[in-house]
Design goal:
globular, Branched-chain amino acid transport system substrate-binding protein, Leu_Ile_Val-bd, alpha/beta, Rossmann fold, about 375 residues, single chain
């Protein structure tokens, strides 16, 4: 009997076995932050989707129908994201939407998707995107709550029970701060110091000094994304901290190491995906084929390394393609939504997705890899 587990690679490849030329179009909408302060998220997302659409269309599309992609750059502005989402539905008549590089833009898009009955796959991290479950909203990144749980599990293994936390006040940072506070006690973690910083802050030494001067702190946790965590990492090194620093999956990319500086980031830990250790995966790893294929294709196309964030877009596209293929009707958003919710065992770059009416993320903690920066590279430590 064949396994129900499907890789994104196999999904794309299977669609190439089609008879005749594509005779119709499947309208797919995308709104990501390809420019602006969240461009480090949206740029690889946009490039990934453009590449995958081109590849799929060259292979014959889905059941003989090519993907017609409409991609907007919202610049990280929630108001623009809402405008583009409305345009995608009303003017471009898309049957599904991928996007929301940030929590803020995602919340704008999902309100339109829910109102209009269009399946939407978010690329942002906050748990509030899929909890409570919304009928038409799914997402590919692990939640911030899961990141807290993965980090605290690692801290427990290191004998760490008392921490200081410094969080960004952006949507993601604030959400993860709240989630970490909520689950800390379940893991035997006590938060002795709780500091924050704004998106434009360029020096966090006052907050970090207060954490350093708090008796009993054994580690520092920094929920946040963008330039803030890089500044925190540099400031921690400058202040001579001798305790571990943990970051979130919101900065899980090679670009973060470059921005923070390899020396400052040495020894830092965070939960990440298989993409960051693609060259270190064993060939029998369940994600080996999909991660290797995507990594090689992206590098060949753009002469750039892949990022976790591009991987989120890769998985969203794979999920949409798989759902449309199974839905049997590429023009019915409801049928596509229903097929999405029935996804079972699709292996992506982020993990293996199995949705249900109660779960529109479809990942568990096993999809996270605890990583450490060593000599300017990523090393799996679990």
């Amino acid at each position: 009997m064949m396994s129900k587990t499907t890789t994104a690679l196999a999904t794309f490849a299977a669609l190439g076995v089609l008879a005749g030329a594509a005779h119709a179009e499947i309208r797919l909408g995308v709104s990501v932050s390809a420019t602006g302060p969240a461009a480090f998220l949206g740029d690889p997302e946009a490039k990934t989707i453009e590449m995958l659409v081109e590849q799929l269309n060259e292979e014959g599309g889905i059941n003989g129908e090519e993907i017609a992609l409409t991609l907007y750059d919202d610049g990280g502005d929630p108001n623009k994201a809402r405008t583009f989402a409305t345009r995608l539905v009303e003017d471009d008549e898309v049957v599904a939407i991928i996007g929301g590089s940030t929590t803020g833009t995602t919340m704008s898009i999902l309100s339109v998707a829910e109102d209009e009955g269009i399946p939407f796959i978010s690329l942002a991290g906050a748990i509030s995107i899929i909890d409570p479950v919304r009928e038409f909203v799914f997402k590919t990144p692990h939640t911030d709550r899961m990141a807290c749980e993965k980090i605290f599990t690692d801290m427990q293994a290191q004998g760490i029970t008392k921490i200081g936390m410094i969080s960004g006040t952006d949507g993601f940072g604030a959400s993860m701060q709240a989630q970490c506070k909520e689950v800390a006690g379940e893991h035997g973690i006590e938060i002795l110091a709780d500091e924050t910083y704004g998106p434009q802050d360029a020096d966090m030494t006052p907050q970090l000094t207060r954490i350093r001067n708090t008796d009993g702190v054994q580690a520092v946790l920094n929920p946040g994304f963008g330039q803030g965590p890089a500044i925190v990492t540099r400031n921690v090194a400058q202040l001579g901290f001798e305790i571990p620093l943990y970051q979130s999956h919101g900065v899980a990319s090679d670009a973060f190491i470059e921005l923070a500086g390899a020396d400052a980031a040495e020894g830092l830990r965070l939960p990440g995906t298989a993409l960051l250790i693609a060259d270190k995966l064993a060939e029998d790893d369940a994600q080996y084929d999909v991660v290797t294929t995507y990594t090689e294709a992206y590098k060949a196309r753009y002469d750039q390394d892949v990022s976790t964030f591009g991987g989120y877009a890769h998985d969203a596209f794979a999920l949409i393609v798989d759902a449309i293929t199974r839905a049997g009707d590429s023009e019915d958003p409801q049928a596509i939504r229903d097929a999405l919710e029935a996804t079972d065992g699709l292996v992506g770059t982020t993990g293996t997705y199995s949705f249900s009416p109660e779960d529109h993320l479809g990942l568990d903690l096993s999809a996270f890899r605890m990583l450490e920066i060593k000599d300017g590279d990523w090393l799996a430590v679990d």
